[in-house]
Amino acid sequence: MLCPFAERALLTLLFKGVPHQAVHVDRCEKPLWFVDLCKNESLHDEVLIIELHGRIRASGKDTCRYSNLQDKQQVDTLIQACQGFTKAGLNLLAGNDSGCWQIGTGQTQAQWKAFEGELEAFQAAIRTSGGPFLLGSEVSLADLIHMPFMERFAVAMPAFTPYDPCAACDGTMGDWLYEMQQLKCCQIAAPDRDLYLQAIRQQRRLDFFEHNTFEAF
Question: What is the C-alpha separation between 111 and 92, in angstroms, rounded?
């Protein structure tokens, strides 16, 4: 299983058909070559590392931008919106007794309203473009960057909170997620839903991949 940041890079490479070789690095036992590479490039050794044309890049977004699909300015605006969407979703799952990336209890109405506000902005983009994707009939870079987080929220929120993001905004989010799940790249990259739910029930956090090698994946 990939972390959502690595998954969105993989989604873009798969969608665009970019030849690539994936090398798995156990974040609990990083190989020396990886640690040395990070030191030589002055990079933090906890981030996704991509080598493109001999250049080292330290972000899934860099990989996505390398394979940019549509108008840069319009896509960048939607990509920036992903930060608020992700932050609000993580805050909702944390509730009032846990930290970021953890799954807590006591979720408040204010937390849900904040997340719902981000979903409404998402819905507005789809309606403006005519859907089913953020920029209309074609998949955009913004869709691919949002997908790993939305698919995790869609599993975790109904399991741990009274909220279902797929039912929000008159079902627009569920419709968008369904359309994304029909894409071959998303089917290849997505975690098994049942195994993922099993994992987060055990770990009570979305970022368990940073602390454990979960053999089910």
Answer: 5
Please give the Cα distance from 58 to 42 (Å, whole number): 10
d(CA 116, CA 169): 8
pTM for the predicted model, two decimal places: 0.84
Distance CA(86)–CA(5), nearest Å, equals 11
Mutual angle of helices 172-181 and 141-160, in 10-degree steps:
120
Q: How far is CA 59 from CA 145, 187, 210, in A?
A: 12, 22, 16
Amino acid at position 13, single letter: L
Block mean pLDDT (10 aa), the chain, length 217: 81 86 80 82 65 65 54 62 84 93 93 93 90 90 90 95 92 96 95 88 76 44
Is 53 within 8 Å of 19 (Cβ atoms)? no
CA dihedral 215, 185, 7, 78 (to 10 degrees): -150
3-state secondary structure (DSSP) of residue 55 = strand
